[in-house]
Amino acid sequence: MSTAPTARVFSSDNTAGTSAEILDALAREATGQALPYGADDTTATVRRRLSDVFEREVDVLLVSTGSAANALGLAALTPPWGSVLCHRDSHINNDECGAPEFYTAGAKLVPLGGDDAKIDPDELRAAARHKAGDVHSVEPSVVSITQCTETGAVYTLDELRTLGSVAEEAGLRTHMDGARFAGAIASLDCAPAELTWRAGVDVLSFGATKNGTMTADAIVVFDRSLTPELAFRAKRAGQLASKMRFQAAQFDAYLADGLWLRNARHANAMAARLQEGLKAIPEVRLLGTADANIVFCRLPQQITEGLLSDGYAFYHDRWEPGVARFVTSFTTAPQDIDHLLRAVRQHAA
Ligand SMILES: Cc1ncc(COP(=O)(O)O)c(C=O)c1O
């Protein structure tokens, strides 16, 4: 009997491949002709599917990266003299090379605090009022919420509604970075509508590349008055693919038969398995809440070095010394987790 080699890369969920259903859909799409630039039938089907998922008519722009989705979505919501209030650990603040500032033509990102990379509502309330209407300052315009957060926590519905009402009272628009949106839905087991437009979200970056697609993420637009402008912005940003049908085919298969949720439930279950195993190892201290597919922990140096020498890959020097991050995906197998735990136990001894 042949066994698959153990996966040892836990640095990110984007190290995973592509779901077989999505590859099949690409192969089917590759025959025949279709209209370009999103005028094809498959793109129309994706819009209908996402309207069903969100229980209302939405507009959809398919893009090739999560950073493009974030930067374009924020640009449609924020004037150049505005500010985007976000968590200081957010991807838009730390990992997008200034794309939000560039695409908004100069809006300012204002970093806020809060545990587990969740925005603290009191900090949001204060920042939303800070120098509002003062022509000498940037105008608080948008709050950007990451769901799941960068540390693997998931905002509860109540937490989201609280942020939504603070934003509404202050007249802020709301953007959601959902690079791991499926993981949040799988974790909370709630309707996607509850987590988004019913909580005040105007534009969602609906990630899929970390959870099964090859090169396709989506901007889901709840405030459809923004769509004409977004369409021009996407073209100008080089994000209007001429063969959009291939991005659409990926999304179509991702949404069909609940593949997106199956994949996310699996990734979350693998992180839960890892978390349970690590809990039983006294030398390891878990950090924060692993509600979805990211586990943070504090590891003694000898364990980190031992794992690295075994060929494991994971972030161990990106935050504070001694803090490690393990990310699971839809391709992580239970035995991959069991091997990793065995190695941690060995190096702890
Ligand atoms: C929270 C979050 N948002 C957005 C992105 C953007 O992803 P991309 O690398 O596709 O631009 C990532 C990727 O790591 C992410 O973790």
TrEMBL record:
EC number annotated for this UniProt entry: 4.1.2.48
Catalysis performed (reactions): L-allo-threonine = acetaldehyde + glycine; L-threonine = acetaldehyde + glycine
Enzyme superclass (EC): lyase
Source organism superkingdom: Bacteria
Gene3D superfamilies in alphabetical order: Aspartate Aminotransferase, domain 1, Type I PLP-dependent aspartate aminotransferase-like (Major domain)
Keyword Transmembrane helix: no
Domain Aromatic amino acid beta-eliminating lyase/threonine aldolase span(s) in chain numbering: 10-287
Annotated keywords: Lyase, Pyridoxal phosphate
Gene Ontology molecular function: threonine aldolase activity
GO biological process entries: L-threonine catabolic process
Cofactor: pyridoxal 5'-phosphate
Function in brief: Catalyzes the cleavage of L-allo-threonine and L-threonine to glycine and acetaldehyde.
Database matches in PANTHER family: L-THREONINE ALDOLASE-RELATED (PTHR48097), LOW SPECIFICITY L-THREONINE ALDOLASE (PTHR48097:SF5)
Assigned protein family: Belongs to the threonine aldolase family.
Name assigned to this protein: L-threonine aldolase
Taxonomic path: Bacteria, Bacillati, Actinomycetota, Actinomycetes, Kitasatosporales
